[in-house]
Amino acid sequence: MFPELICFIIFFMLSFVINQKRLHKSFDSQIRIPNKVVIVTGANTGIGFETAKELARRGGRVILACRNLTKAHEAATKIKLATGHNVVVKHLDLASFRSILAFAKDIIKTEGRVHILINNAGTGVLDNSLTEDNLPIEAQVNHFGPFLLTMLLLPVMKNAPETARIINVTSILHVFGTVENLDKQGKNFLERRRVYANTKLANILFTKKLAEEVFSTNDNIMVNCCHPGAVYTDMFRDQPRIVKWMLKLMFLTPKQGAQTSIFLAVQELMPGLHTSGRYYTNCREDQPFAAAMDRGNAQRLWDLSFKVCFADRRW
Ligand SMILES: NC(=O)c1ccc[n+]([C@@H]2O[C@H](COP(=O)([O-])OP(=O)(O)OC[C@H]3O[C@@H](n4cnc5c(N)ncnc54)[C@H](OP(=O)(O)O)[C@@H]3O)[C@@H](O)[C@H]2O)c1
Q: Secretion signal: which residues (predicted)?
């Protein structure tokens, strides 16, 4: 039995690695984005760091929106050394509506316009505690926080003469998600384990609904989401050493994982509903799972998010 199990694990790992490498696509275009104001949340490490670095290299005025300012300044120094470009560091804690409001006010006052917003920050902490806004922490950091941030920044995104872009980083794990009771703590082990998938489903439904809303009001904003692949990042920092070693071997690097976010931020796409509200992976459009295409789900999530973020006025 034991040798069979080892063979199965090796076979599984090899086919996973081969499949990931086979499907992975790098974004090779050299398009530059001089002076475009870009916000990348969770940009101090992982996929967000690589995204911010590349967009700075392409001439963007990149703002690292991070909860830990020490880590963010270290990241800014690394980007400056690697690209020769300065980036801006600002505090943003998505687990706090007050922090999101302060960040948005600061951006509106100091920048006045935003061309590209990348909602990249995310957590998979399996922590069932509530935030100061009385929401489950994973649900707030991964969905309600980015929802509020996006809504507060929409007015300055509409100001830009060229098409502005919103990119939400989701995950293929949305396949296991549901958006029922997203604002409630998980009652049992299974419900708690599912919160990450629920929030990643929410990222896609939000993308689709927001794309329709901005299109119907003729706002010049393109909204898309992407799955970065399975990427070895700090997201797995609490795993045992042997698991981390295996993941590092099998998964993509953060630079590889950043390619689709970068593609969506800079690639020239004709504005319109056929290029907005879409799900991308490996730098091309893909079809998400059925729950992410359900308009009823999208409407229910939209209503709940407005209630939680605005009607209940938690901030
Ligand atoms: N890695 C994968 O295989 C994978 C697969 C699919 C989707 N994704 C998605 O990719 C995105 C980036 O993840 P990653 O893999 O690059 O993970 P990561 O290396 O752990 O980066 C996550 C970033 O989010 C930040 N963050 C966490 N809580 C925050 C909060 N309350 N306020 C503001 N920022 C906060 C983290 O800050 P700290 O450093 O201070 O913790 C970090 O900068 C996430 O949305 C994730 O769901 C990842």
A: 1-19
Cα separation values, 223 from 36, 157, 207, 261, 299, Å: 17, 11, 6, 12, 17
280 labelled catalytic: no
58: its two tokens:
């392409």
Residue 263 lies in a domain: yes
* 19 part of a folded domain: no
Kind of pairing between the strands at 221-227 and 88-91: unpaired
Number of folded domains that form the chain: 1
Its domain, for residue 147, covers: 32-311
Residue 24 belongs to a domain? no
When computed from its CA atoms, the radius of gyration of the chain, rounded to whole angstroms, is: 19
- Looking at ligand 1, which atom is closest to the CA of residue 199? 47
Q: Which of 196, 232, 279, 280 is catalytic?
A: 196
The CA–CA distances, whole Å, from 145 to 96, 114, 179 equal 7, 18, 15
Q: What is the pLDDT of residues 135-190, one digit of tens each?
A: 999 999 999 999 999 999 999 998 777 899 999 999 999 999 999 999 999 888 88
